[in-house]
Each structure stands twice: as structure tokens, then as C-alpha cells.
Amino acid sequence: MELLKISSRTKPAALAGALTGVIREHGRAEMQAVGAGAVNQAVKAIAIARGYLAPSGIDLVCIPAFVDVKINDSERTAIRFIVLPA
């Protein structure tokens, strides 16, 4: 399963579609965001994806966690979102 990486410029509706597809295919998804703008887009996408999956009777649970990542030779803290069906 691939890790969905989010930036502050990621379109929430497009990410929600990708998130929905990954959950339907793999049963779970993981997303990673660095920075407040990216976290904001991730949370919006999770809310939109819930709406996409609701007609199928699927609700989502999100488990956030901090992870350290290396970006351009510097250590950054990211938030990893594990998204699962409820």
C-alpha cells in the first residue's frame, strides 16, 4: 500500500477520491502531511471521503500520529493519518 503524501496545495476533493479508492482496494489508507496547510488539506479530504463512502454504508476512523521524516537533508516532524473503515 502506498503512502499518500499531502502538501498545502493538494486539492481536498481529489485527495478524497484517491483516499476512497485506496480504502476500497486495500481496506485502509495512510497519509502523511508536513505543515499546518498540509494537515488542513488532509483533514478536509478525510471529511469529504466520509461523504463519498457513506452511501456504501462505510464510515471512517482516523488515527493521527507524529513521525520524523527527512526532507532535503533536514529532519522534520510530519503527521501520519491512518484511515480505516469503522
Describe this structure in words.
With 86 residues, the protein is an alpha+beta fold. It has one domain (3-85): Translation Initiation Factor IF3 (2-Layer Sandwich), CATH 3.30.110. The protein contains 2 helices and 4 strands. It has helices at 12-26, 36-53; strands at 3-6, 29-33, 60-71, 74-85. Strands 1-2-4-3 form a 4-stranded mixed beta sheet. β3 and β4 form a beta hairpin. α1 crosses α2. The model has no long low-confidence stretch (mean pLDDT 95).
Q: What is the percentage of strand-forming residues?
A: 35-45%
| Cα-to-Cα separation, first versus last residue | 19 Å
> Helical region count?
2
From the 3D structure, determine the CATH topology.
Translation Initiation Factor IF3
CATH superfamily: Alba-like domain
Instruction: Please bin the fraction of helical residues.
Output: 25-40%
- Overall pLDDT: 95
What structural class do the secondary elements suggest? alpha+beta
CATH class: Alpha Beta
Gross CATH architecture: 2-Layer Sandwich
* CA radius of gyration: 13 Å
Uncertain parts: none
Largest beta-sheet characterization: 4 strands, mixed
Shape: elongated
Count of spatially separate domains: 1
Order of adjacent strands in the largest pleated sheet = 1-2-4-3
* SSE order: EHEHEE
DSSP strand tally: 4
